[in-house]
Amino acid sequence: MNGLVTSDVPAFAVVGRVNMGKSAVIATLLEIDDQDVVRVSATPGETTRCQPHRVIFGGRECIRFIDTPGFSRPVEALRVIHSLHGEGTPNLETLHRFVAEAGEDFGDEKRLLEPLLEGAGVLYVVDPAKPLRDDFLAEMEILRWTGRPRLALLNRRSETTGPDEEAWRSSLGGAFNLVRSFDAHHARYEERLRLLKSLLEIEERHRSKLEETIRLVEDEWERRREESAEIIISFFEEALSLKVEATLEERDLTLPSRRERKAELLGKQYFGKLSELEKECFAALLKLHRHHLLKADTNIDAFHGIDLESDETWTKWGLKRGQLALVSALTGAAGGLAVDAATGGLTHGAGTVLGGLLGGAAAWFKGGSLPDLRIDLTGGITLGAGEGKTLSMGPPKNPNFPWVLLDGILSRYRQMLARAHGRRDEEILEGAGEGFTRHFPRERRDVLAKWFNSCLKGSPNRALEPEVFQALVAALEEV
Question: What is the tens place of the pLDDT at every residue in 338-388?
Fold first, then answer.
């Protein structure tokens, strides 16, 4: 034998027919989307030997899953095992003889049986959409003869129930201690945890170790949520205080085309930097959640992280008017959604410059298509030394902007959590659907509104951060 199983660590051999999704189940359960670590492929026979995958916490192995070759000739193997045993039901001793004496024609069967003969439990993966044939019944019988704790997993490839699923359940129920459903390409954290808890129902020898493992997984998930909240807090502190500046020469003040071009370039620079901040935020979140094939948008020329040019964005994301009025009153901000076009203190033709900047910003946001939701990006225009004028854009004046930004973060966080590690296609974080912030309880909105306001003023309220942290942790848990 190969020493795949030790007495002090619960081990489960993941077995089944070729291309039933064994490797995908392991990849999703252990959060491994690296093809070099767990190869998920439609090519038959990708797993040719037993490959142990260890779950380690604090440098200590807590549980082990062993990826095995798929059954190749189960009906023929069953006959050979019967002939080796003679009368009665084959047992472990007979299976040991089969592994020792059978030829390499049964190489896959011999290798997948090795961890079971060493003491591993069975995690049997089947696709219930496939017809229940004699070769599957033979596999079940051989696994039953091991006498090991056995869990059968119906690895569904779609949400619909296949015509043979009840037949599968009936046959599996007679050969396995427990039958569960699982979708290796869409399972979220709760379903992965449920599968781990199912192992408690079939494995009594390592119950305390399994309970400890489940507790450690839950603790790790809670730490991830808290670290995610910290990452988002850091993002908002930077994003809501972001400003960009440019110099407008004296001669440009009198040329509308130059003013508009400068305003457009400044707007693109602002949103490019905002997009870069969001990419950094999600790069940290993706690393924390062990995703390599799910990517943040790499386009920094425009702020595609949240499509502020889309009417749908402003319809579904951010707070409603009444909610905005309440939080604006709370923070002392101007009520409503009107554009702040104040020009006090501007001299020497700077009012004309402001008009050009507003025109550029309005063009950026599709002009009059969003008349009540345009963002005034003019954080101020200050006189520079000599003949030039220093233009400053950001942060946006629209009181709904932080809430739309937060909905964009939460929407992509939801997409990230829904991504199973067993998938091998690349995907871009885009986010979709309804927002979350308008459904927040009033107390949470009030805390966040005060903090957003302090960030927009360039001085985040540190005294509020514990409450903000708890508010974001609660929001992430709801997602």
Answer: 333 332 323 233 333 333 333 333 333 332 233 333 344 444 444 444 556
Which is nearest to 292 in space by CA: 39, 33, 53, 37? 33
Quote helix, strand, coil % in the chain, to nearest 5.
50, 15, 40
CATH code of the region 11-205: 3.40.50.300
159-176 CB burial, b ≥16 within 10 A, e <16: eeebebbeebeebbeebb
Residue ranges of domains in the chain: 11-205, 224-478
Tally Cβ neighbours within 10 Å of residue 217: 19
Q: Measured between alpha carbons, how far is residue 249 from residues 243, 347, 369 in Å? A: 20, 15, 31
49-58, 197-206, 311-320, 377-386: range with lowest mean pLDDT: 377-386
CB–CB of 396/375 below 8 Å? yes
Secondary structure (3-state) at 8: coil
Coil, strand or helix at 339? coil
Percentage of the chain modeled with pLDDT above 70: 79
